[in-house]
Specification:
The protein is built from ten helices and 15 strands. By secondary structure, the protein is α/β, with parallel strands linked by helices.
């Protein structure tokens, strides 16, 4: 399943290329509670079709009502981008279903050039990280390749949105846990690959949409072109790459023995192993492969989103306290 950002951009590009009128809305700024983070996008066609979201649904309904002929609004033309604000007053916050005190600003782009979106998608599909710069006064869009992920920003005059290739997950071992984890990763917009040197395991893999790789894990990790949007569920070769998450499955005892072996035989240190998650996942009392996959996916998403988790979520710490 494709990430929602790529889906919005690809759909908007296709609609525009087919001669449809399209509004591209981006969450530019938020105050207080907000249903969607800055940079979230939706595409609205002039007949009322929508992909993506900027809120829990009420703001989407208002945009449809205002701007589409199918719902009695005035179809958008080729005007310069606009900034609109929702939830300034308590009455508006209630009307648009925003959380208490929530306010957000949207940037509306009317019929953005499909050629620019096509060029952006071509670069993203090639694995590049791209900074999209929109100047509000003129509506001009520029695309700049970058090597560094940046936070979305809007200063009232320019919007900078750094977009990257979709997040990827490489799993070592085609077992039952991997199948559950792959399913959840696909629903969260990850491209998923599974590696196993045992053909009999790969041949019985049951999750569609996952790349299957037969090979030795360390070799596969080296050849995987790991980047800042890659997570790896396992092995030594990944430790010194740029992946945002590296985890290894195993009990507390096996995880500790693994660390000792890596230090003794592979010249690793406690510092170099600090990035290795193991036991993998968050402590939620998981017992079955499906439950363990939930805890692992939650830990991966926390790492992806830069969320700092309390020590109480550590499996090793929680079980030690329980003893």
């Amino acid at each position: 399943m494709e990430s929602i950002d790529l889906l919005v951009l690809r759909t908007a590009r296709d609609w525009l290329a087919a001669g449809e009128r399209v509004l591209l809305a981006t969450v530019a700024r938020t105050w207080g509670s907000s249903p969607r983070p800055t940079g979230s996008m939706m595409a609205l066609r002039d007949d009322g079709r929508v992909v993506g979201s900027v809120s829990g649904g009420c703001i989407e309904d208002d945009l449809i009502h205002r701007y589409t002929t199918a719902h009695g609004g005035s179809a958008f033309g080729d005007s310069a981008p606009q900034v609109v604000r929702y939830g300034v007053s308590a009455d508006e916050a209630h009307r648009f279903g925003l959380p208490c005190g929530g306010t957000l600003e949207l940037i509306l782009e009317f019929n953005p050039a499909w050629q620019s979106l096509d060029e952006l998608l071509t670069q993203l599909d090639a694995g590049q990280l791209v900074r999209r710069r929109l100047t509000l006064e003129s509506g001009q869009v520029t695309l700049e390749s970058t090597a560094t992920p940046e936070q979305f920003s809007f200063d009232g005059a320019q919007m900078l949105n750094t977009l990257g290739p979709g997040y990827r997950m490489l799993m070592i071992g085609a077992g039952a846990l991997a199948e559950y984890l792959a399913t959840m990763a696909l629903f969260n917009g990850f491209k998923v690959a599974v590696c196993d040197p045992r053909p009999e395991y790969i041949e019985t893999w049951a999750v569609d949409g996952v790349e299957r790789i037969v090979g030795m894990p360390d070799d596969v990790v080296r050849d995987f072109a790991v980047d800042l949007r890659t997570c790896i569920v396992a092995l030594l070769e990944a430790l010194h790459g740029p992946a945002f998450y590296i985890g290894a499955i195993g009990s507390r005892r096996n995880s500790q023995l693994r660390r000792e072996r890596l230090i003794e035989h592979f010249d690793e240190t406690e510092a170099s192993l600090a990035r290795l998650h193991g036991p993998i996942g968050l402590y939620i009392g998981s017992k079955t492969p499906a439950e363990i996959a939930v805890s692992v996916m939650a830990e991966i998403l926390a790492a992806k989103n830069g969320a700092s988790l309390p020590q109480a979520f550590s499996i090793a710490r929680a079980k030690a306290l329980a003893e």
